[in-house]
Design brief:
Order of helices and strands: EEHEHHEHHEHEHEHEHHHH
Structural class: alpha/beta
Radius of gyration: 18 Å
Strand content: 15-25%
Shape: globular
Number of domains: 1
Number of strands: 8
Largest sheet: 6 strands, parallel
Helix content: 55-70%
Number of helices: 12
Strand order of the largest sheet: 4-3-8-7-5-6
Length: 252
């Protein structure tokens, strides 16, 4: 798929359906692959840490998870692309995995949350094969090869990784080549699917204000991060837009 650069990340351009089809195709191939779902936080992490940005850009797909990225691509290049959010992708991929007889593995978060996800998935998708799940202890090295071996033995096609950004992206980049499956860094999709966290109304999502809804839910945890990343993102986008305009004027 073609991509366009948003600051430090190359964002894949596709419709929501094309992204789902591509992921299911990667799962069917049983070859090492990984997919990142980029939001403002990830873009800023990549801007501040070149090595992290290279790991994300090495993914098979880097989808525009957040509306600010969708709007920035439109601002920079005049191109309309779909938002492909991990929260929306997760239930759709469970459905497609069931329909295509693909096995899934859930990696990350907590035992309690994994149980809720599995219980709900078994009701919604009774023919879905959940090949395994595991919540790594917080006090243990996430790069322990035991986890990789566990996932490999499950023979899963789709591996959903929920370790939080940037940990999940770094883990996928480091271990993807060892696992014949597509790894998907879905971040906050687990608690949304399990109904332990309420998602923003569709209207707020469509105008790019989902972050504000989350901030209202968890102000103490998110205020500092959002203030820093959102402010820096806006400044960098303005600078990049001015640079693009200056370059175009110079060429004409």
């Amino acid at each position: 798929m073609t991509s366009k650069k948003v600051l430090s990340l190359n964002i894949s351009l596709q419709t929501f359906k094309e992204a789902l089809d591509a992921i299911i195709g990667l799962g069917a191939s049983k070859k090492p692959a990984y997919v990142c779902f980029a939001n403002v936080h990830m873009v800023i992490e990549a801007h501040l840490n070149k090595a992290f940005g290279e790991n994300v850009n090495s993914a098979n797909l880097v989808c525009a998870d957040g509306m600010p990225l969708v709007k920035t691509i439109k601002l920079f290049y005049g191109i309309k692309t779909d938002r492909v959010a991990g929260m929306d992708v997760f239930p759709e991929l469970l459905k497609l995995a069931e329909a295509n007889a693909q096995k899934i593995f859930l990696f990350g978060t907590t035992d309690e949350l994994l149980k809720k996800i599995i219980d709900k998935a078994k009701i919604q998708f009774p023919k879905l094969t959940i090949a395994g799940s595991y919540s790594p202890p917080f006090d243990k090295d996430i790069n322990d090869e035991t986890y990789v071996d566990m996932i490999k033995k499950s023979d899963a096609n789709l591996v959903f990784v929920a370790l939080g950004c940037p940990k999940q992206e770094l883990w996928m980049a480091k271990h993807s080549h060892k696992i014949n499956a597509v790894l998907l860094g879905i971040g906050g999709a687990f608690p949304i699917y399990a109904d332990t966290v309420k998602r923003a109304p569709k209207g707020m999502r469509n105008v790019g204000l989902e972050w504000l809804y989350r901030l209202c839910q968890e102000p103490r945890r998110l205020f500092k991060r959002y203030f820093k990343t959102n402010t820096l993102f806006i400044i960098l986008v303005i600078k990049q837009k001015l640079k693009i305009m200056f370059t175009k004027n110079k060429e004409t």
